[in-house]
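User: Sequence for DNA-binding transcriptional regulator NtrC below. Tokens please.
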Amino acid sequence: MNETILIVDDEPTQRHLLTAMIARSGHHVENAGDGSEAVARIDDPEKPAIACVILDMQMPGMNGLDVLQAVRPRHPHLPVIILTAHSGVSRVVEAMKAGASDFIVKPASAERLRTAIDSALSHVSMTGELPHIKPSQKDFPGFENMVGESPPFLDAIRLGRKAAAVSIPVLIEGPSGVGKEIFARAIHQASNRKAKPFITVNCGAIPENLVESILFGHEKGAFTGASDRHIGKFQEASGGTLFLDEVGELPLDVQVKLLRVLQENEVDPIGAARPVPVDIRLISATNRHMAALVEDGHVREDLFYRLNVFPLTIPALQDRAGDIPLLARHFVGQIARAENLEEKPLSADAWRCFHKPHGRAISANYKMPCFWRW
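Assistant: Structure tokens for DNA-binding transcriptional regulator NtrC:
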């Protein structure tokens, strides 16, 4: 994978070292000496798109946080990896909340840098979508707007409606891309908590040393770098629903604290004198078999039973092939409306691609060579 990586750092020596490390991985590297130059390069439509940004936190003028806040609205899916000379958690948490994908404490090793870039590019590849047709949070469809008539999919919707009627924990399993978050939002919207917050946490995207602080919060002065009090995601979601995506990626020590939250309905922020009561509806999701993670020792068995009170599996596209025509028409119409184009039917060649590529049933990850005829 040869992508364009942008290094943003005001120190020429640091830019030179990072360029050499990244170039050895086969990527094309560009440099920016300050925040303003970086924003202009990221926004430049005449040059190749930037696939990932390595961004220094401390720079004169426009610092790393300023750059993040400037580019994130226009480039919501662009991975940004923060470089910092200090591991102060409160500053890093601020960057993560502003949209950073990961952070690296200087001096960065070649292996840590390569792993961070590969992870960021892989995440974008798996979750890539057409941003201009992605609905806003308030427009996410409920069960009544979901597209599909195949028996496995209708069974999942039926179970989702049942889950919405109660407040017990739900565990959603299914391959990447099947719509686990959409189902979680639909459950929330069909519940008596729909007027309250719906908070999403991608457990696999949080640096391990920040997981506890981001989920449960911390008090000012709780540890070196904790210059401000931070409210965790459980408190943010209190009264509503907390969605933990890829819950099986949580470290084992954090799983212990999560188990306590589910048992006691209270969280222990780092450095707090006493627990804080929370009232949340927990929905968890994983693209792996949770029982297998328990057997492998990656997930605590007692936590599994607490999360798996109401199990729900969303079928992969290859298991609901009868829904392909409905989904194809739906997305063609959605794209046409977004681009202000006349909606036209799919071509015969496109239908053949959808139904039997290379003589096999369609794969969940199959990339279409043709879509519709304009």
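The domain at 4-128 is CATH 3.40.50.2300 (Rossmann fold).
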